[in-house]
Design brief:
Blueprint lengths: L8 H11 L8 E3 L1 H7 L3 E4 L10 H11 L2 H6 L1 E4 L3 H12 L4 E5 L5 H9 L3 E4 L4 H15 L2 E2 L6 H17 L5 E5 L4 H13 L4 E7 L4 H8 L26 H8 L2 E5 L1 H13 L11 H7 L9 E4 L7 H8 L11
Parallel strand pairs: 2-10, 3-4, 3-6, 4-5, 7-8, 7-10, 8-9
Antiparallel strand pairs: 1-2
Helix pairs in contact: 1-3, 1-8, 3-5, 3-8, 5-6, 8-9, 9-11, 12-13
């Protein structure tokens, strides 16, 4: 099945060989509390413990290493909601290249400052990923930088898929994998890896109700634009691109379901991660836990929920833990 898709199981295995030694193999931990709630064993893939605090380092590293020396010398550029920018800045610096990262004003300051710390040229443009992407296109056109997209790129998807390989190798009997879903790079890569090894394993994408671009696109049968709104799961914001070439088709063909979560449910997931699992995660990383707590996932065997990132503003995290509602349901 995956051989007909833009990224194959062999592409993902090649990416795993390429990034070995540059990216951590993250642990999986069984959650007793979530297992009691779900009625089946639940394991947490602790990808938030990755070197840059999110899974994005996998795809960015594979993409940078796939470039020629001449391309790396020109420098790389991307639009980002934060985590891809941090990962690309880190990967570029490690390989002697430079990065320009374009972000909208919706990206939290803690993520912006960390990207600057890594030496990247940060550009804050507009209030959406689409506006930030316009600056990326200009830098490619006028300054010759090489674009490394945050998700819609075969090398990026293959890199993210290495996380799926780690899951299926550590827990071959896994029944359901819960994956945060935004532009689809992680979901597409993980699904291609998991189903390439065991087609019977379900892979479910999880995203917020506020501005779920991939969900809206899948429902429409083609990529569509959605309005970006503030959310606890800010890393899941942004569009998928009307000219999407990779992740839309892969998510359409490989995901078994997509589940939407309210801001209150995401907050509950963050609180549970902190209180019961002793893990600090950002809202986007808590969606798997949130779906289990809300009873929105039914499984007949072991479940793995991916904790995708920890790059949360700590003041925001404190307020969530204290039970404050930061974004009203359905509001702006």
């Amino acid at each position: 099945m995956t051989s007909r898709l833009p990224v194959s199981l062999e592409d993902i295995r090649a990416a795993a060989r390429r990034i070995t030694g540059r990216v951590r193999v993250t642990a999986m931990a069984q959650s007793v509390s979530l297992g009691e709630i779900a009625g089946v064993p639940v394991h947490l893939k602790l990808e938030h413990q990755q070197s840059t605090g999110s899974f994005k380092l996998r795809g960015a590293t594979n993409a940078v290493l796939s470039l020629s020396q001449a391309e790396r010398a020109r420098g790389v550029v991307a639009a980002s909601t934060g985590n891809h920018g941090r990962a690309l800045a880190y990967a570029a610096k490690a390989e002697g290249s430079v990065a320009a990262i374009c972000m909208s004003r919706l990206v939290p300051e803690n993520k912006v400052s960390e990207i600057r710390r890594l030496g990247a040229d940060v550009r804050i443009i507009g209030r959406s990923q689409d506006e930030a992407q316009q600056e990326v296109d200009r830098l490619v056109r006028e300054e010759g930088l090489v674009m490394v997209p945050p998700f819609d790129h075969p090398a990026v998807v293959a890199g993210q898929g290495t996380l799926g390989l780690e899951i299926i190798e550590a827990l071959q009997e896994v029944s359901t994998v819960l994956v945060p879903l935004s532009g689809g790079g992680l979901a597409a890569g993980v699904a291609a890896a998991i189903k390439g090894v065991n087609p019977k394993t379900k892979v479910i994408g999880l995203t917020m109700e506020r501005g779920a671009a991939m969900k809206a696109s899948l429902d429409a049968g083609e990529p569509v634009q959605v309005e970006e709104l503030p959310s606890l799961a800010d890393s899941l914001g942004g569009g998928i691109g009307l000219d999407n070439r990779v992740t839309f088709a892969m998510c359409r063909d490989l995901l078994d379901d997509v589940i939407l979560l309210s801001e209150a449910e995401i907050a509950a997931g963050m609180r549970h991660a902190y209180a019961a699992e002793r893990e600090i995660v950002e809202g986007a990383a808590a969606v798997g836990i949130a779906a289990l707590l809300a009873g929105k996932v039914r499984a007949d065997g072991p479940v793995v929920a991916i904790l995708s990132g920890r790059n949360v503003d700590m003041e925001q995290h404190r307020r969530v833990i204290n039970g404050e509602m930061l974004f009203a349901e359905g509001g702006r």
